Amino acid sequence: TQSKMRLTVNGKTCDVDAAPDTALLYVLRNDLALNGPKYGCGLGECGACAVLIDGVAARSCVIPIEGCVGRDIVTLEGLGSREHPDPVQQAFISEQAAQCGYCLNGMIITIRALLNRSARPSEAEVMEALRHHLCRCGAHIEIKRAAMRAAG
Ligand code: FES
């Protein structure tokens, strides 16, 4: 059954009409045209769909939207703009860390979440944060460099 729900996404109020157990990822991509978060596994395992919920990285493919009402959702689009990218986005651009780019949404969101809780994370903390993100291209060296650049 469809329900009307009000979400806050990238600082804007969005009214959606969907089944309460619909995964947040589908609402973001299909209803709100926010294509930063990617569909990878749909099982909460690859990290491609990550978004920030109240500043913490979350896997939107396994989060029902009813649990997102009243919370602050930020997608890759909400981190920064083309003119003013978030420092994490800028680090990934500077290090040319994308190969196909599919996984980068999750990597960037996760590093942003790490920096939200720890301003100067260690290399071990960065690697731990990225441990459960899959990159099938094998662009890991550049991703690590970008993440470390963002970590200052
Ligand atoms: Fe959500 Fe893989 S698509 S974790």
TrEMBL record:
InterPro entries recorded: 2Fe-2S-bd, 2Fe-2S-bd_dom_sf, 2Fe-2S_ferredoxin-like_sf, 2Fe-2S_ferredoxin-type, 2Fe2S_fd_BS, Beta-grasp_dom_sf, Diverse_Oxidoreductases
Transmembrane portions of the chain: none
Annotated 2Fe-2S ferredoxin-type domain residues: 3-79
Domain of life: Bacteria
Keywords: 2Fe-2S, Iron, Iron-sulfur, Metal-binding, Oxidoreductase
UniProt-listed PANTHER family: BLR6046 PROTEIN (PTHR44379:SF6), OXIDOREDUCTASE WITH IRON-SULFUR SUBUNIT (PTHR44379)
Name listed for the protein in its UniProt record: Nicotinate dehydrogenase subunit A
Organism for this UniProt entry: Bradyrhizobium ottawaense
